[in-house]
Amino acid sequence: MDFTFSDDQLLFQDNVRAFLTNEVTPERIRDLWQTESGRCDYLWTQLTELGLPAMTVPDGFGGLGMNELDFILLAQECGYAALTEPLVDTVLVGVPLLAALGNEQLDLQSEWLTRIAEGKARLAVGQPGNPLVADAHVADLLLLPHGDEVHAVPRAAVALVRNASVDPSRQLFRVDWTPTAATCVAAGEKGRTLWADTVNRGALATAAQLLGLAKRMVDLAVDYSFERKQFGKPVGSFQAIKHLMANVAVQIEFAKGPLYRAAYAIANGLSEQDAQVSHARLACTEAALLAAKNAIQTHGAMGYTWEVDLQLFMKRAWALDKVWGDRGWHKARIREALFGGAILPGAGNTF
């Protein structure tokens, strides 16, 4: 069997990479920090023109009808660029959750999925056990958990309280709202299944971005190591620096296989997707955190300063380390898959 990506998938990745390189620069990210929303409507329009928000929207609602495996390479590129817009969460988390509600919520799906595909609406998804919702302030519809229930709540029906993040690009909000029968779109066993699948997709989305961030931090450190000279030579020529970067490069390559396998498992509904997603999440997280650590060492004291671009990607990696399950929770899921035994209560409350 051939598990390599198709020529079309690789070409799409190249095109998205070129677009993000030109449009999502470190200077533009810093400029967005000075705005009230931290987001750019024009950039979202450009992403829509590329067809990205519509990728996982079913074709019956005006989308492209693609799956997680089709988008996984693009999610990496979003991480590499530290894209501020909630594209990855929309495509890999919000849209599949909305699409999985079934025919019972056909009117809701028809309204919102069509608008999302057209770039006229955005989603935000709450994480079970986490009171903070990313990008709730720009979402037209929020999909929120209440026990086993899934609630679809218009933004006008909630009150938002901003919370600071270690990453200035992450816009986090506590959402104050009242669950009602009118907002409940799934409950009971169906609700539990939907949230379990959503947690997996959220962890996959996070893993892909972390892998992209790891690669960007390596590239920044390598570029700096050739510019910085000591004893008349670029510091990148020193063996100690080479080892720092080589160790991260190995971690990145080892993380690719688990990530793509997890995307395949979700796209094809495989029964072992829980363990495979957790494996990918752990591998990509370890690569990103090691990249941040070693890139800082390569930059020296400069790595900590506000002016250096490295901090944009380093802080994003630190922030994503704690969303859609922390490392302890994902390790527990792998242990359960390998050796049996239940995950301890409360282990996932850092979603």
From TrEMBL:
Q: Does the keyword Hydrolase apply?
A: no
Instruction: Supply the alphabetized keyword list.
Output: FAD, Flavoprotein, Oxidoreductase
Q: Which cofactor does it need?
A: FAD
Enumerate the spans annotated as Acyl-CoA dehydrogenase/oxidase N-terminal domain.
Answer: 6-120
Q: Which residues form the Acyl-CoA dehydrogenase/oxidase C-terminal domain?
A: 190-336
Organism name: Metapseudomonas boanensis
* Protein's UniProt name: Acyl-CoA/acyl-ACP dehydrogenase
The protein's matches in SUPFAM superfamilies, at most eight in alphabetical order, are given as: Acyl-CoA dehydrogenase C-terminal domain-like, Acyl-CoA dehydrogenase NM domain-like
Question: Which Pfam families does this UniProt record tie to the protein?
Answer: Acyl-CoA_dh_1, Acyl-CoA_dh_N
Query: What does the sequence similarity comment in the record state about its family?
Result: Belongs to the acyl-CoA dehydrogenase family.
